[in-house]
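Appendix B.2, paired examples.
Example (i):
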Amino acid sequence: MKTSKTPLSLVLALALAMMLGPFSLDTYLPAFPAIGADLGAPASAVALTVSVYIFTLAASQLLGGALSDRHGRRTVLLAGLGIYAAASLGIAAARTLPVMIGGRALQALGGGWVLVSVPALVRDRVSGREAAKLFSLLGLIMVLAPGVAPSVGSALLEAGSWRWIFLALAGYAALLAPLTQRFIFRDLPRREPETGPVPSLGRRYLDVFAERAALPYIVWQTAVFSVLMIFVTNASAIYQGHFRQDERMFSLLFAANVAAMVVFNLANRALLARYPSRAILRAATLVLGAGMLWLVTAALARWPLAAFVPGMMLTLGSMGAISPNNQACYLEHFPRNGGTAAALLGATQFSVAGAMSAFSTRLPETLTAVVLAMAVCAAVAVGVMIFSDE
């Protein structure tokens, strides 16, 4: 039986579990020079640990989601935390870059199992507007987490060495284990165990693909996430390269986009009291399209920074309303295979968006090229909105 009210303790526990992902990506970024110097590797080689993590994270969700449907969320999430903590300790002890890269892959395996469990747990508890509200609140915390993570990493780096960062991540995962036991799994509605022959992983994903009405949401989410990843990859080139802003202004301009996401996220929570998730999702996607049109015009007409920034805030801010509603609408189709469905969504958006991000680095180093790449992805999202049957 699904609950209609979500305790704050549960929300915070789920959010802390989800934050493991952005903290794993962003906390150690300030330590790249120190890691390279210690391990005898250039910064570009250290950056490879980010790519390894992202793509392994995508693949690990495919396995973790299906396993959680068969063996339960608790088993997979706690196993993921154990793997993650052990890998983090291994990275902290690494003496060579290949060992660190291997540790990051193992860390992503565990992190992916944790990450994919959270939306499935939301689907196990609530549905409809309540699910959208919970995803929206989790999304708000997820927006704020990447802004905090580098500061935490800088503080740990100043207090000790880069190895302290991974010791802290191991400790974080270890603390999450009793926290999830206490606040997430204590009163989780019992799922009926699966009976009959055990479906293979392939069979589970074929069952998800059979829900044709749900598939547009995968494309929708992936296209929108690709817009964000292309921007993040090229943010420095846009603001510091094209518009000639210093590091301080870059931080402020980047923070403006985060602030816009927060505003849209809060507005989304208020609108959910009156409108269905699907209606808000469509409206927010139209805002994304309008913001993208603004950016294309600004790039082609060579508008100044002051005229460019509002378009970027509108484009990226809309994602604060798109993602939670898209997840809620998508998972509504999967009352029993929520873990597998969440895995497919997460793996697709991370792998495709990661590939689009990498592709964008091969484009001409101009603002127009980056904006047009973002526009193509946004056009896919708008197209799915227009032609979707639901």
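Example (ii):
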Amino acid sequence: MQPWGKAPALTLAGRVVSTALDALFPPKCVGCGGFGGFICERCLEVSARATGDRCLRCWTALKSADCTNCTHHASAFSALRSAFSYGDVAREAVLSLKFHGVSALAPRMASQMAIALQEWSPPADVIIPVPLGWLRKRTRGYNQSELLASEIARASSLPLERHALRRIRHTAPQAHQPDAASRRENVRGAFGPGSRSVSSNVLLIDDVSTTGATLDACAQALLASGAASVYALTFARED
């Protein structure tokens, strides 16, 4: 089993290639712009963790005794956790991974998610990434959620299942939707069962949760196809 929160060890050839690439193209921190790593230790230290008084189901920051999100709409997933609040460095990391092609950010982001997962320790049996539409995946070159899920699977020794969930219709970007109700409607029925069935407890992986609408729609599809329960883990949570 890989140590929690650490990337798997590289082979000798991999270390040589990695060292050579770092020498030629040293990574820059998406937060401060300093060389040495895509997210430097100092920026990690000052980034706002998604902790404090939060709803134990949707993980939104509570402003009163009751969670208004869950009062108005109870999500299909059993619980959500996120490593960071969506702002500053965490926001830059998500945008760089999703829209700017910086796929090398995934291991660093996933290591922080793995630490949060270890502290949370939900009864998950299998990891499933939120699927990306084929056109966006082709344009982007990868599914950022799948990259994160793959790294978390290595760190946690949980199996990764890429084919239990699929996107069955194209949707407009969630960021373009004006409110939570519009986001839920946008992804309603957008996901369905894949070629592999899962009947155990699922850990659903995505990069960021804003209203939880996408995670909710995925959880509904997984539960309808036989999953016992669905938990969700993201790098960031927008409050």
